[in-house]
């Protein structure tokens, strides 16, 4: 395992990922359009993941090869600085298609 700080950041990412996945249980894509709180929550969870990723050491990132760290950090920047043009379809796809594997990989790393 990397430093204590890296472990804390990885756990923060894991917690935010789990919360995002829990938030979409029994939900459909159209729920993002009718539930602004759900949309805001998913965006916030992804922001947390991206911010924590940006603070991870290179060693910690390298220990989880194949994770698109650059894209995760870029998404965080887009959510923060381009919040007015966030595509709900993209958020939904990330949470549904990419996040489950990311969470599994973090769970394995931290177990």
What does the model show?
The chain is mainly α and 111 residues long. The chain has one domain (4-110). It has helices at residues 4-23, 30-34, 36-55, 58-62, 69-81, 88-110. α1 (4-23) packs antiparallel against α3, α1 crosses α6 and α3 crosses α5. The longest helix is centred in the C-terminal third of the chain and has 23 residues, at 88-110. The N and C termini lie close together (11 Å). The model has no long low-confidence stretch (mean pLDDT 95).
How are the SSEs placed, and which strands pair?
Blueprint: H1 4-23, H2 30-34, H3 36-55, H4 58-62, H5 69-81, H6 88-110
Helix pairs in contact: 1-3, 1-6, 3-5
Features of this protein?
mainly alpha; 0% strand; globular; 111 residues; 6 helices
Question: Care to give the gist of this entry?
Answer:
The chain is mainly alpha-helical and 111 residues long.
Estimated helix fraction? over 70%
Structural class: mainly alpha
Question: What can be said about the biggest beta sheet?
Answer: none
User: Low-confidence runs (pLDDT<50, min 5 residues)?
Assistant: none
